[in-house]
Design brief:
The complex is a heterodimer. By secondary structure, chain A is of the alpha+beta class. Helix content of chain A is 20%, strand content 45%. Chain A is built from 5 helices and 11 strands. In chain A, strands 8-1-2-11-10-9 form a 6-stranded mixed sheet. In chain B, the strands form 5 sheets. A 6-stranded mixed sheet of chain B has the order 14-18-19-17-16-15. In chain B, strands 6-8-9-11-10 form a 5-stranded mixed sheet. The radius of gyration of chain B is 35 Å and the shape is flat. In chain B, a hairpin with a 5-residue loop joins strand 18 and strand 19. Chain B folds into 6 domains: 163 residues, Four Helix Bundle (Hemerythrin (Met), subunit A), CATH 1.20.120.160; 87 residues, ACT domain (Alpha-Beta Plaits, 2-Layer Sandwich), CATH 3.30.70; 62 residues; 57 residues; 179 residues, Histidine kinase-like ATPase, C-terminal domain (Heat Shock Protein 90, 2-Layer Sandwich); 136 residues, CheA-289, Domain 4 (OB fold (Dihydrolipoamide Acetyltransferase, E2P)). The chains are: A alpha+beta, B alpha+beta. Chains A and B meet through strand 4, strand 5, strand 7 and helix 5 of A and helix 13, strand 21 and strand 22 of B.
Chain lengths: 161, 742
């Protein structure tokens, strides 16, 4: 999509999201933060890291931390296979790799498509969920990466470790 | 480009000129009498003066002018650059450097310093020092009062010329020169102005001038930016031809300039440039060429033989001729090369770093590619394989050349040291000569930037503590002038910097006593000489009896050692009582790569910086001793050293591994404590490119950085200090020894 097209569609209140699957749930993030999508490669584990950090891989010479989205979203830790994919996303100044089961869709939606998140008790969901999309019979949860990986959280974790 | 940017460039150039100046002066100090050296020194000051004038930095101009004047005396052999003269000159170079710094950063140089030196320089320029002939002495009293009142402006016209000319020529000797001056378009486009040059020329003497307007076209065909005028000048002046030419110095390349002495103008030929070529070599070659020809010819009929010899000789003559032209061409090339020496461009360091990063990727990528080709190649040798080999060679070469871009000679740092030696020696009243060696040894710029500080510290220490006072030295039968030698050389992929003084050496008794007083060692500790010497690197150690301005603030050699280690380097000392000490620093050539030992820990590959490792050993079961609840010690040559399981510290495994199955790396960390790090296996030694973990992740305790291995996977680089620190938290054992044995 050309830039002018993107600007046009944005101005009409529509935006593009990339949807991915973890277990039996679907999530989506803003496509603008996604840099590339690549296959799973074995990560080098990091000492003293939180359980959802799978380790680091070499992304063309940069050291890229891999986040197990399943574990990060409070579900059971992923057991990565060759079919898993890594979504390389820019979160503020840092680039992280998000391990998901599969990328399912690219969605073009307007703000009207987004329903508010219902009242739920879990803090974690409140933290990252920014809305729910109903596409056909599917339910897709829109998440905000910045909320999942606040820049300071890393520092706190390392202090605790 | 605004004025500030231009000014910035000027100051950058000043730095270079100052370096040139200082190195030239030091060469002269060492007895070099090459006129080119003197010229280089003169040019440096002259350029600074010129640039400073353009920016209206009057203080700088005034001082540079006086300095230049004195240097000109040296240049024209009127002043012998002996030790005393050079001492003043070196001091002047320091002041000039300070003036440049002040002009850039604000602030001011003490006027008394400048004024004092101006007086000294002027005295030298007036020929007070050299013996010379009677005539200038007679002329001096007359000249002196003229000179003194102009002190403040510093802009007086070179006052020494008249009397000093009396040395070789009759006083008041006048020459007449015919000067033809035709500026080109470039002269004006560079902001020069013919009128100003002519005005400068007119100051030299009686001058008559005629404008040559022959080439002036009709108004309608005139290019407003072109140059059409030329001038014919006849000038009568006591100055030499060189001085007349010097007026046009900055415009030389942008004009047609011809200066002829009126008397010699007629018969004078163009100067011949001698073309050196080795005739004997030329003669040998054809002889050899003739020989085999002649031999084969001998077998054939005689007339044929003669003709072939004749041919060979002809060929040889031709060859000689072509060789002669080749030699001429080579000489020309040399001249071209000489003028292009020192041609540099300024490149933003970030750009170079990006290039280095990219080339690093290229190397890794190429290694990965090779590996997968080897894995998938069933035929053995294939054209792909050969192509890959060439690619590998190319990438290596690219990497080397890119690294070379960042490499710089250590010269600037060494030069700074000579100034420090001069200043500190003056302050403490010692006579010290600094000898430098291998100053063209190249090393990465970041390393250069970072060694300056520890080196300064060490030099100060050497001057203050190392070299004895002249009286003491004389009493010991040594030359009252102490020598400090600073040398740099490459050794096995590292740079070795040695600082050697011929002072008193380390007073081991005092060092030991001081260490005992400061609770660094126990009074009954039995230390080898080497261990005692190395105590000076212990934190909080200072042997200076009285605290001086220069050193002895209690932060001494330990800081030096720490900063050297932070660079991935090592420092050691060897000392001979009464004869002096030698400090040896070994540093990596670059900070972008690191020599590491690749090890396996709990199935993971880790890199341990080689600089931290003292030795590696295979522990035997009998050497392992349990200590307390879960501590273990390993006995190495009868001393006990705590055993640290790296896998456990990094949380790679839940239980401590059995040390007998692994390898122990004896490491030394800050503070000098030794630990035996347990790893499972050693894979080998490798140079690795350092990658930041913080860029996308965060700092990880126990991990210094990451790197990418040949298989494309990320390996972590162990932070030895942090690992040892973490182990110390559990350790109950106090420090055994502070002395390093490495």
């Amino acid at each position: 999509m050309s830039v002018s097209c993107a600007v046009k569609s944005l101005s009409q209140g529509s935006r593009e999201l990339i949807a991915f699957r973890i277990g039996d749930q679907e999530f989506c993030v803003n496509i603008m933060s996604v840099r590339e999508i690549r296959g799973w490669t074995l990560a080098t584990p990091m000492p003293h890291s939180p359980p959802y950090v799978m380790g680091v891989i070499n992304l063309r010479g940069a050291v890229l931390p891999i986040i197990d989205m399943s574990a990060r979203l409070g579900m059971k830790p992923a057991e990565p296979t060759a079919r898993h994919v890594i979504i390389v996303a820019q979160v503020k100044s840092k680039v992280v790799g998000l391990l998901v089961e599969a990328v399912s869709d690219i969605l073009t939606i307007t703000d009207d498509n987004i329903q508010p998140v219902p009242e739920i008790s879990s803090d974690l969901e409140k933290l990252y969920a920014r809305g729910i999309l109903a596409i056909d019979t599917r339910m897709i949860c829109l998440i905000e990466l910045e909320a999942l990986f606040p820049e300071k959280a890393h520092d706190k974790e390392s202090e605790a470790a | 480009m605004d004025m500030n940017e231009i000014k910035e460039i000027f100051f950058q150039e000043c730095e270079e000129q100052l370096a040139e100046l200082e190195s030239g002066l030091l060469k002269l100090n060492d007895g070099d009498r090459d006129p080119e050296t003197v010229n280089a020194v003169f040019r440096a000051v002259h350029s600074i003066k010129g640039g400073a004038g353009a920016f209206g930095l009057e203080e700088l101009v005034a001082f540079a002018h006086v300095f230049e004047t004195t240097l000109d005396c040296v240049r024209s052999n009127k002043l012998e650059p002996n030790q005393d003269v050079l001492k003043v000159m070196l001091k002047s170079a320091d002041v000039l450097a300070d003036l440049v710094t002040c002009s850039r950063d604000g602030g001011s140089v003490e006027e008394s310093r400048t004024r004092g030196l101006v007086k000294e320089l002027e005295a030298l320029a007036n020929g007070e020092a050299p013996p010379a002939a009677e005539a200038p002495k007679a002329a001096k009293p007359a000249a002196a009062p003229v000179v003194q009142p102009t002190d403040d402006s510093g802009f007086q016209p070179i006052p020494f010329t008249f009397d000093s000319f009396g040395d070789d020529e009759a006083v008041e000797d006048q020459f007449t020169y015919e000067v033809t001056f035709k500026p080109t378009r470039e002269l004006y486009s560079k902001g020069n102005e013919a009128a100003l040059l002519l005005r400068d020329l007119s100051r030299l003497g009686e001058m008559s001038i005629a404008c040559d307007m022959d080439q002036l076209p009709a108004l309608e065909s005139m290019d407003p930016e072109a140059s059409y005028f030329g001038w014919k000048i006849s000038i009568t002046t006591p100055k030499s031809e060189d001085e007349v030419r010097a007026v046009f110095e900055f415009a030389e390349w942008d004009c047609e300039l011809d200066v002829k002495s009126a008397e010699t103008a007629e018969g004078e030929e163009l100067p011949m440039i001698p073309v050196p070529f080795d005739l004997s070599a030329l003669d040998d070659e054809p002889a050899e060429a003739v020989q085999p020809q002649a031999e084969t010819a001998a077998k054939a009929s005689v007339p044929e033989a003669t003709s072939s010899v004749a041919k060979a000789v002809n060929a040889a003559v031709e060859k000689k001729e072509s060789a002669a032209t080749a030699a001429a061409a080579a000489a020309q090339n040399n001249a071209a090369a000489a003028s292009s020496v020192g041609q540099t461009i300024r490149v933003d360091l970030d750009r170079v770093d990006r290039l280095i990063n990219l080339v690093g990727e290229l190397v890794i990528n190429q290694a990965m590619l090779s590996q997968s080709v080897i894995e998938n190649d069933n035929n053995g040798v294939s054209s792909i394989n050969m192509g890959l080999e060439e690619l590998q060679q190319l990438t290596r070469e690219i990497q080397d050349s890119v690294m070379a871009i960042r490499a710089q000679p250590v010269k600037p740092v060494f030069q700074r040291m000579s100034r420090i030696v001069r200043e500190v020696a003056d302050m403490v009243g010692k006579q010290i000569r600094l000898v430098t060696e291998g100053e063209n040894t190249e090393v990465d710029k970041t390393v250069i930037d970072k060694i300056a500080e520890p080196l300064t510290h060490m030099i100060r220490n050497a001057v203050d503590h190392g070299i004895e006072s002249p009286e003491k030295r004389e009493a010991a039968g040594k030359d009252p002038e102490g020598t400090i030698k600073l040398s740099a050389k490459h050794r096995s992929g590292r740079i070795l910097i040695e600082l050697i003084d011929d002072g008193g050496g380390i007073n081991r008794e005092r060092v030991k006593q001081k260490a005992i007083d400061n609770d660094l060692i126990s009074p009954d500790a039995n230390l080898s000489d080497e261990e005692i010497d190395n105590l000076i690197f212990a934190p909080g150690f200072s042997t200076a009896d009285k605290i001086s301005d220069i050193s002895g603030r209690g932060v001494g050699m330990d800081v030096v050692k720490r900063s050297i280690q932070a660079l991935g380097g090592r420092i050691s000392i060897s000392s001979r009582p009464g004869l002096g000490s030698t400090f040896t620093m070994s540093l990596p050539l670059t900070l972008a790569v690191l020599d590491g030992m690749v090890v396996t820990v709990a199935g993971q590959t880790l890199v341990v910086p080689l600089t931290a490792i003292v030795e590696t050993l295979q522990p035997e079961a009998s050497a392992i001793h349990s200590f307390g609840a879960n501590q273990r010690l390993i006995s190495i040559r009868n001393s006990f050293c705590p055993l640290v399981d790296v896998g456990r510290i990094l949380n790679f495994r839940a239980n401590q591994a059995n040390p007998v199955d692994g390898v122990a790396l004896l490491v030394e960390s800050e503070g000098g404590g030794q630990r035996a790090l347990m790893v499972d296996a050693i894979q080998g030694q490798r140079q690795v490119v350092i990658k930041s973990l913080e860029a996308n992740y965060t700092h990880v305790p126990g991990i210094a950085a990451a790197t990418i291995l040949g298989d494309g996977r990320v390996a972590l680089i162990l932070d030895v200090d942090a690992v040892v620190g973490a182990s110390r938290g559990q350790s109950l054992k106090p420090e055994m020894s502070l002395a390093a044995t490495g």
